[in-house]
Structure formats: structure tokens, C-alpha cells
Amino acid sequence: MPEEAKDRPGTLIIIGGHEDREGEKKILRAVADRVGKGTLVVSTVGTNSPDEVWEEYRKAFRDLGVERIEHLDVDDREQALDPERARVVEEATVVFFTGGDQLKITSQLGDSQTYQNIEKLYFERKGTVAGTSAGASVMSETMLVSGNGEESHKVDAMLRMAPGLGLIQDMVIDQHFAERGRIGRLLAAVAQNPRHLGVGIDEDTAIIVEGGEAFEVIGSRAVYVVDGAHVSYSNLGEQEEDRDKVMAAFDYKLHVLSEGNRYDLVERRPEVPGKPEVKEKKSA
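Given the sequence above, the corresponding C-alpha cells read:
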């Protein structure tokens, strides 16, 4: 897609998983609010239980007043190429990816007409793409596929990365973050390529990315931002005989954000709306 078409895209709602689906539904309400009088497409491509998951989300969004809801389920690559499935997305206002396996999502949809219509929705029609759990990880240009959280602090325990859907650049997203102790693997992911901002999202928490330039946090828990732009040293590229050598990396910057906080993706700076900018302290 031409670069000029990607200026000021639509909205991403990236959810850490296990969002409230029965109570206040604050995060799903944010998704529903963006549907308006249009159509919400719920994609269950990543899950092995598409009918069950579809019914759960269909009910949740119906309860939130969404009238037009379509189901996008793709079992194989051939179905992703089906013009009828592509047409479902073509007419959507919002596309919502459920959880499951992020590689299943990218391998089935990548560069199909269905995927191209998702790109058009986000980049050209300025619509909304949302995703939870695995559906969150696929949003980025590069996604985390696997990596044992307990071993990711070791030099030899290189994380498995793969191309995502590419809706947001220069970011690696991890979900179920605090609940599954994933700080080590996010630090390792950023150390492998400090160009990428690491964003870890707790369960029942989301970031809303408007226009690709900033995000706001909503939900009951936290979002962790790991900035490796100024990492001064890491031993990941060194030849090590000890395969259990512990990873070392210096001068990360870590931010912890809660509901209502914002993060400027251009300046790489956290913000509290309505309060004076917090200046970074300089050493004497």
C-alpha cells in the first residue's frame, strides 16, 4: 500500500486478554462505541473453538447495543481467498480478532483479499481494528510467537518472532503480561532489536491507538512500555560458550501506565492528560 495512504490511519484497540465480558464491559464497550450504525465483524480465525467463541462475543456485543454483527471464520487458506468472506470485511466498520494462535491468524489471512480489506478499513477508511490476546499480538509488524518466560533471560533462549499483520510499526506487543510473568521475554525481545518499542498489556486492560501517533490506557490493570532506544550494551550478539549465560542489557527505559494515562509514540513519552508534562530528570 502506498505510504501516503498510511498517514493518519484509523483506530486500534489492543487488549491484553480476559477482558470483562459480563459486567461493565468497559473495553468491549469502547469497541462497540466505534461500530455506530455500521457492522462489527468478529473474526475467530485464531481459535480452535470458533462457534463457541463467536456465540460468547456475539452475546456480549448484542448486550452493548450492537445491531449488525457478522462472523468471520477461516479454517484454511483457500477460505481466506473466498470473495464472499472478503466482502464481509469490506463492509465492516470494526473488525475484532478473538484470541487463540497468532500464527494461525497471520498464516490464514496474510495478503489475502480478506486481509487487504482489513488494511483498507484501517488505513483508508479510518475504521477500527481490535484484538484480544493473540488477536492483540498480530497487530504489530513483528510479533512474539513463543518464548518460555522462565528461560527468556538466558542468551541461548532466543525468542521466536514472526511477521504480524503490520497495522502498527516499530512495536512488539505481549499480552496476559503480569499474569504470565512475561517481563523477561519482552526485555529480551527489545534487546534483540531496540528499534521496537515493547508494550506489555495485562489482562482486562487495553491500549487505544488513535491515528498511529499515541495511545491511551483503559481497563483495570497496567500497561508496561519498554524503550530500548538508549540501551548502551547487551551481550546477545556475543559469542558465548556457556549456553546458560544470563542475558545482560543496560539502560532500558521502563514506564508503567494505568487507566487514563497516555503514551506519545512519536516522542516516546508517557503523559497524564490535564497535568503539566513530566520532565526527565538529568544527572548532576
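The mean pLDDT is 90. Try to locate this feature in the C-alpha cell string yourself.
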